[in-house]
Design a protein that fits this description.
The complex is a heterodimer of chains A (157) and B (116). Chain A has helices spanning 15-29, 33-57, 113-116, 121-132; strands at residues 4-8, 63-70, 73-79, 135-140, 145-152. Chain A is α+β, with helices and mostly antiparallel strands. Chain A has one domain (4-152): Histidine kinase-like ATPase, C-terminal domain (Heat Shock Protein 90). Residues 86-121 of chain A have low confidence and may be disordered. The termini of chain A are close together. Helices cover 36% and strands 22% of the residues of chain A. A five-stranded antiparallel β-sheet of chain A has the order 1-2-3-5-4, with helices on one face. The relative contact order of chain A is 0.21. In chain A, a hairpin with a 4-residue loop joins β4 (135-140) and β5. With 116 residues, chain B is of the alpha/beta class. Chain B has a single domain (3-115), classed as Transcription Regulator spoIIAA. Chain B is built from four helices and five strands, in the order ββαβαβαβα. Chain B has a five-stranded mixed β-sheet with strand order 1-2-3-4-5, with helices on both faces. In chain B, α1 runs parallel beside α2 (57-71). Chain B is globular, with a radius of gyration of 13 Å. Classes of the chains: A alpha+beta (157), B alpha/beta (116). The A-B interface holds A 12-13, 15-16, 19, 37, 40-41, 44-45, 48, 51-52, 104-112, 114-115, 119, 121, 124-125, 127-128, 131-132 and B 21, 23-25, 54, 56-58, 60-61, 64, 67-68, 71, 85, 88-89, 92-95, 97-98.
């Protein structure tokens, strides 16, 4: 299937559009119906994160999304142009390090401590992505952060 | 649909009915409503999410913020949700350990009343 590319002004109102497009392309690519909600949520999280980063650093630059269905995989790449993010400099995948990206199981270690320590929005969003995507890779470049998420597909598109 | 919010009082508990999508664009409105309710002295809240079609981490952050606010007044914030697609994000983030999540508004209110 040919790659679908989109870029959008980094405004929160456009994140829903990105979700809808990604879900439609995923369905066409043969991603199972049961996984489409995960695609929608993960892509939304990645785009929301990028929008917030752009609004802080480069509000005139668009957020880029590439959607590809090939070789039994549906892949989404969300790329921002925010050169100095808050993630680890080496772009490592989420970890349970304090101040780093929490792994899904450790976002809320126990009932009350979740309220005592402040979970940064970025941390929660990235933890959600890691918990939803079948495979996820984070790559930080001098230009910004690229999040690649993929799911299995039947490749009907 | 974006987001539709409504609220009413039942048995001394403020029930917030949420309909639509809670995301980075719409979540600020829910946040403002929760802040307004707390500022007006409503510290026992039930957020009915049975008609929520989408919830992301921004929405989770708003709910956690609301919970912190009411707990500062020894209050409570419970959720009503049976949709697996919405419950999934609570499970992934471990927030099922933080929020009381009930099947109906009646159940949520009864659970809160029985604790008093």
């Amino acid at each position: 299937m040919a790659t679908v590319e989109m870029s959008f002004t980094p405004l929160p109102v456009h994140v829903r559009t990105a979700r809808l497009v990604a879900t439609a392309v995923a369905r066409r690519s043969g991603v199972e119906e049961a996984l489409l909600d995960e695609v929608r949520l993960a892509v939304g999280e990645a785009c929301s994160r990028a929008v917030e980063a752009h609004q802080a650093q480069c509000p005139d630059e668009p957020v880029r999304v590439e959607l590809t269905g090939a070789n039994g995989r549906f892949e989404v790449v969300v790329t921002d142009a925010a050169a100095s993010g808050q993630e680890d400099e080496d772009g490592a995948s989420p970890s349970a390090q304090p101040g780093g990206w929490p792994a899904p199981a450790s976002v809320v270690p126990n009932g009350t401590s979740a309220l005592d320590h402040s979970v940064p929005p970025q941390g929660l969003g990235l933890a959600v992505i890691a918990g939803l995507a079948d495979d996820v890779q984070f790559a930080r470049t001098p230009a910004g952060l690229s999040i690649t998420m993929s799911w299995p597909s039947r490749g009907t598109g | 649909m974006d987001l539709k919010l409504d609220h009413h009082t039942r048995d001394g508990i403020e029930v917030v009915d949420v309909e639509g999508e809670i995301d980075v664009y719409t979540a600020p409105r829910l946040r403002e409503l929760l802040i307004e309710l707390v500022n007006n002295g409503h510290y026992q809240l039930v957020v009915n999410m049975e008609k929520v079609e989408f919830l992301d981490s921004t929405g989770l952050g708003v709910l956690v913020g609301g919970l912190k606010r009411v707990r500062a007044h020894d209050g409570s914030l419970d959720l009503v949700c049976t949709q697996e697609r919405i419950l999934k994000i609570f499970r992934i983030t471990g927030l099922t350990k933080v929020f009381g999540i009930h099947d109906t508004v009646d159940e949520a209110i009864m659970a809160r009343k029985s604790e008093k």
